[in-house]
Write a structure and sequence with these properties.
With 381 residues, the chain is an alpha/beta fold. Helices cover 39% and strands 13% of the residues.
């Protein structure tokens, strides 16, 4: 049976032996996750769907580690259990790895759930949220749905957070959101600037630092994780995810670190047992097998250098990237280019109104980025 065959529910159940389950989880055609056939093709029963190079969602093209895949395979035998004890085990491991007490952790259904419950807990009518523009906007949508005003502060000339202007907007704000490294610009906020900002923000205003991409920041960069600041700032929350360097975007597992009183406020808005047991066991295995993450980090740097060299050769400017994606200045409206790139079999990131001439592209594998460069040359002339 090929990996493109549509499985019936009954047939899927028959195949769920430990070994076969692992083969169903791991793509059998040898393609990395970012080049899998489009789901529509699979659902319609086509046996030879065209492969598309997917560089649109900042996913890890190498997927989860072998250990995580095995843990998921073995985890089928745990599917009848509620995830509580495994939740606690992962929290204990996170606590041990960071030196932060277990009562300061909360797991989420991806870091997306963390952002939502933070918006619910700390914003509302009369408690606005302050964010950069552009940045990852999910938390702003949640705050707006909660009745909060959303105040956007434009990035600086070098595409960093304008913390001075964000501080000016802090009075009366319930929440300030800092994505570091920032999505979509892949820029970092310097560590001294973050500390100075936190020193000046009113303690009644919560600051949430989203570190979805912190694993990708190169050693020696002017960067400091918010986890190192937790003991000094009672209004600080740090969110992280297993979606990126651990290759678990589809499993939905994230967490945050905060003071216990803030955890309590956020839990009030969280669905009970929102994290599934397969995600938790995969997360445990990922944390106990660091080589996969380290290899993903090294490959990201290597392939990103290749892409930059090609863009330099073509004369296109780009924002220096501290993540697994980058923003390229096309010097023209990006919207038709996004569509034409898709016509050439390469999906790139969506349109960002604040940067209308920039195209965001995920850093995939070397072959994928060779396909990207080839399509880019063809489209851009």
């Amino acid at each position: 049976m090929t990996n493109t065959t549509v499985l019936s529910r009954r047939r899927f159940t028959q195949l769920l032996g430990a070994g076969t389950a692992c083969s169903l989880i791991r793509p059998s055609n040898g393609l990395p996750a970012a080049s899998l056939p489009l789901p529509q093709a699979i659902l319609t029963g086509r046996t030879t769907p065209a492969a598309v190079v997917r560089l649109s969602s900042n996913e890890n093209p190498y997927g989860p580690s072998t250990a995580a895949l095995k843990a998921m395979s073995d985890g089928f035998s745990l599917a009848w259990r509620y995830p509580d004890e495994y939740y606690d085990t992962l929290v204990e491991l996170l606590s041990k790895s960071t030196g932060i007490p277990t009562n300061q952790f909360m797991l989420g259904n991806g870091s997306g759930e963390i952002l939502k419950v933070a918006a619910m807990a700390f914003t509302g009518a009369g408690k606005r949220i302050v964010i950069a523009d552009p940045t990852f906007e999910a938390i702003a949508h949640h705050a707006q749905n909660n009745g909060a005003e959303v105040l956007k502060v434009a990035l600086t000339g070098d595409y960093g957070h304008d913390l001075r202007k964000m501080l000016d907007a802090a009075n009366g704000a319930g929440l300030i959101y800092i994505c570091n490294p920032n999505n979509p610009t892949a820029t970092i906020t310097p560590k001294a600037a973050v500390r100075d900002f936190l020193n000046k923000v009113p303690r009644t205003t919560v600051v949430l630092i989203d570190e979805a991409y912190f694993h990708y920041v190169e050693t020696g960069s002017d960067y400091e994780s918010g986890l190192l600041l937790m003991k000094d700032y009672s209004n600080l929350i740090v969110a992280r995810t297993f979606s990126k360097i651990y290759g678990m975007a589809g499993l939905r597992l994230g967490y945050c670190v905060a003071r216990p009183e803030q955890i309590k406020l956020m839990r009030a808005h969280q669905v009970w047992d929102s994290i599934n047991i397969m995600a938790i066991v995969a997360g445990l295995a990922s944390m106990q097998n660091d080589e996969h993450a380290a290899q993903s980090y090294r490959q990201n740097i290597e392939v990103k250098k290749f892409v930059c060299s090609q863009l330099d050769e073509l004369g296109y400017r780009y924002i220096p990237s501290h993540a697994n994606f980058m923003m390229i200045d096309l010097r023209r409206d990006v919207k038709p280019v996004i569509k034409t790139m898709a016509d050439h079999g390469v999906e790139v990131g969506r349109f960002f109104p604040a940067l209308p001439n920039f195209m965001r592209v995920t850093i995939g594998t070397k072959p994928q980025m060779e396909s990207f460069v080839s399509a880019f040359r063809a489209v851009m002339g």
